[in-house]
Design goal:
single chain, mainly alpha
C-alpha cells in the first residue's frame, strides 16, 4: 500500500490494545479477552467509518458547486480519490478483523473439544 500501512501489523496493534484494556478492566469484573479484541477492532473500524462519512459530506458539498468552477472540479476529484482509498482500506481492515475473530473463535472451539 502506498501509505505504508501493513494490515497484519495494524490488526496486531488493535488486538494488543484490546487485550491491554481487558487487563485493566479485569480487576473490576471485565469481559473476556476475545470480546475485548472484537471491541477494539470495532472501534478501529468505527474511526475509519467516521472518516468515510466526513469525506462523503465533503463530496456532497463540493457537488453543489458551479460546474464551471475548475478548482471545485479538481477538489471534487481529489476528495473522490481519497474517499475511494479510505473505502478500500476500510474493506481490507473489515475482512482482516473478521478473519482474525473467526480464526481465534475456531481455535478456541478446537481447544475446548480436546480438553
Amino acid at each position: 500500500m502506498s501509505n505504508g500501512i501493513n494490515v497484519s501489523v495494524y490488526v496486531g496493534d488493535v488486538a494488543s490494545s484490546g487485550l491491554q484494556r481487558d487487563k485493566e478492566a479485569s480487576a473490576t469484573g471485565g469481559k473476556s479477552w476475545l470480546v475485548a479484541i472484537a471491541q477494539a477492532m470495532g472501534n478501529a473500524l468505527g474511526t475509519k467509518a467516521a472518516k468515510l462519512v466526513e469525506l462523503s459530506n465533503k463530496l456532497d458539498s463540493l457537488a453543489g458547486k458551479s460546474s464551471d468552477d475548475q478548482k471545485a472540479a479538481k477538489d471534487f476529484q481529489k476528495t473522490m480519490a481519497q474517499f475511494q482509498a479510505e473505502s478500500q482500506l476500510f474493506s481490507m481492515l473489515s475482512n482482516a478483523f473478521s478473519t482474525a475473530i473467526k480464526s481465534i473463535g475456531e481455535g478456541m472451539t478446537s481447544l475446548a473439544r480436546k480438553q
